[in-house]
Specification:
Shape: globular
Mean pLDDT: 81
Largest sheet: 4 strands, mixed
Number of strands: 15
Oligomer: single chain
CATH superfamily of the largest domain: Immunoglobulins
CATH architecture of the largest domain: Sandwich
Structural class: mainly beta
Strand order of the largest sheet: 1-6-3-2
Helix content: under 10%
């Protein structure tokens, strides 16, 4: 059974921050999709419970690891609304719990704001992240503009997607059997997403046969 450590961090999280002193999502986030997080020995979960944000970090490592937890607030167009960070040390085979009062978050609109919670170890070897939405009734584009680039590679195809606005529950498919590096995901605004489709035997000329579906439940 893992040891559980409880922490109350971010005493004044994002309080009073505005887009004037924070960067846009395009500047803040590098291309960190898929396997970089899936292979981490540090698993992060985050959710809203009652009047607080709860973040959990679970370590499968046999040694302690120091790192940084960041909580970043954005709107659905990718504009940064505030951010805060704190250093943490995760003990071997343990769970680290963090609690942040929602009153400390400078929320502009619960239907069009979201959080990215991240952990990155001091040496850069471990990374994990979790997305948090504040409402089930989100203000999203009904027909988002998604730029698509499909390129053949030795093992199959590489798909690159980018959209100026948030797109939820994106699913990709080709008319052949294969394995995706990541499928059923949220495409963050102005963030380049890169996804790989592996097939046992290369099938040419699939570049124009990619199908994309998404679920933006509430439109503007």
């Amino acid at each position: 059974m893992k040891n559980v450590i409880y922490a109350f961090l971010f005493g004044a999280l994002i309080l009073g921050c505005t887009a004037n002193n924070t960067s846009d999502l395009t500047d803040e986030i590098s291309d960190e999709c898929g396997p970089a997080f899936e292979e981490s020995d540090i698993k992060m979960g985050a959710s809203i419970f009652e009047d607080k944000l709860e973040i959990s970090l679970s370590s499968n490592l046999e040694e302690s690891i120091a790192g940084r937890v960041s909580v970043e607030l954005y709107d659905f167009s990718g504009t940064g609304l505030g951010t805060d960070t704190s250093t943490v040390t995760l003990n071997p085979d343990s769970v680290f719990l963090i609690e942040v009062p929602l009153s400390e978050i400078n929320l502009v609109n619960k239907n069009s704001n979201f959080l990215i919670c991240r952990f990155e170890s001091k040496d850069g070897s471990q990374r994990s992240q979790s997305l948090v939405y504040f409402s089930d009734e989100l203000t999203l584009e009904s027909d988002p503009d998604i730029d698509i680039d499909v390129q053949p590679i030795i093992s199959g195809y590489k798909v690159r997607l980018i959209s100026p606005s948030l797109v939820k529950n994106v699913k990709l498919s080709f008319p052949v059997e294969g394995t995706w590096s990541n499928n059923c995901f949220d495409l963050l605004p102005s963030k380049l997403g890169e996804y790989y489709f592996s097939i046992p035997e290369y099938t040419p000329d699939l570049e124009d046969q990619l199908e994309i579906s998404f679920d933006n439940p509430v439109t503007q």
